[in-house]
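ARCHIVE CARD
CATEGORY: sequence design from structure
SOURCE FIELD: tokenized fold
FIELD CONTENT:
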């Protein structure tokens, strides 16, 4: 799987990219809209992970420019207006940087195919008896 990660903050890129790479994804990281457009034009991407707040423009414009069949994940600030704008731009999902880093790190159970569609995977109760059901000796 080929992932184009468009993240202007090197600290977040360093947190997200290795988790994706560890899950059998080939990840290319770019930091600007200009570089993202060039990478999108030359590559056959399976997933686009793009920050909405790029230094040279809105990452949302890239959602319209990538080819059909590419899963589009937008990293946006919290808040309904940002989420709506990203979905209207063609995003398949919208997450914060913190959520994406957590999801990418938690996807260790199998190949990374993008963030889960529901939170159940990340919020599932641990297997085994809970503290409230264990018998005291």
């Amino acid at each position: 799987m080929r992932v184009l990660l468009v993240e202007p903050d090197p600290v977040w890129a360093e947190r997200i990219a290795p988790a994706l790479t560890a899950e059998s994804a080939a990840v290319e990281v770019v930091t600007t809209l200009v570089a993202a457009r060039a990478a999108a034009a030359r590559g056959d991407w399976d997933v686009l992970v793009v920050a909405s707040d790029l230094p040279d423009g809105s990452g949302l414009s890239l959602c319209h420019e990538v080819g059909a069949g590419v899963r589009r994940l937008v990293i946006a600030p919290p808040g309904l207006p940002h989420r709506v704008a990203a979905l209207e731009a063609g995003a398949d999902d919208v997450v914060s940087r913190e959520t994406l880093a957590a999801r990418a790190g938690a996807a260790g159970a199998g190949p990374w195919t993008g963030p889960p569609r529901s939170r159940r995977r990340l919020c599932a109760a641990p297997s085994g008896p809970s503290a409230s059901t264990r018998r005291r000796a």
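CARD ANNOTATION: DSSP finds six helices and seven strands in the chain. Residues 10-22 form the longest helix (13 residues).
SHELF: design records, drawer C
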